[in-house]
UniProtKB/TrEMBL annotation:
The chain crosses the membrane at residues 6-22, 29-48, 93-112. The keyword Membrane applies. The gene is spoVAE. Pfam families: SpoVAC_SpoVAEB (PF03862). This is Stage V sporulation protein AE. Keywords: Membrane, Transmembrane, Transmembrane helix. The keyword Transmembrane helix applies. InterPro entries: Spore_V_AE, SpoVA.
Amino acid sequence: MDYIKAFVIGGAVCVLVQILMDKTKLLPGRIMVILVCIGAVLGAIGIYEPFLEFAGCGASVPLSGFGYNLWKGIKEAVDQDGFIGLFRGGFKMAAVGTSAALIFSYLASLIFKPKMVK
């Protein structure tokens, strides 16, 4: 049942983003920034944590989950280190996921030989 919830909720997030892309003139980069900011704001007001517990990977995999992850790292670092935590917390919390994405995309580029699109 967890897989079905994650699939449905993650798919619903993707559908909403696709509708936003089709019905507005927003560029994909701006939509990605909006998703990250939404995740951080919902985390700050306490809504994203229950949503994450309910939806599992359906809430943690989209970019809104990345925004929540950044906010959570900054909050923990500020509680522990004070003001300097504003600058360290996000990097510390998101380092593993970002590093994994870079490493695996590099390995995929070695295996599949991507072509440059003009």
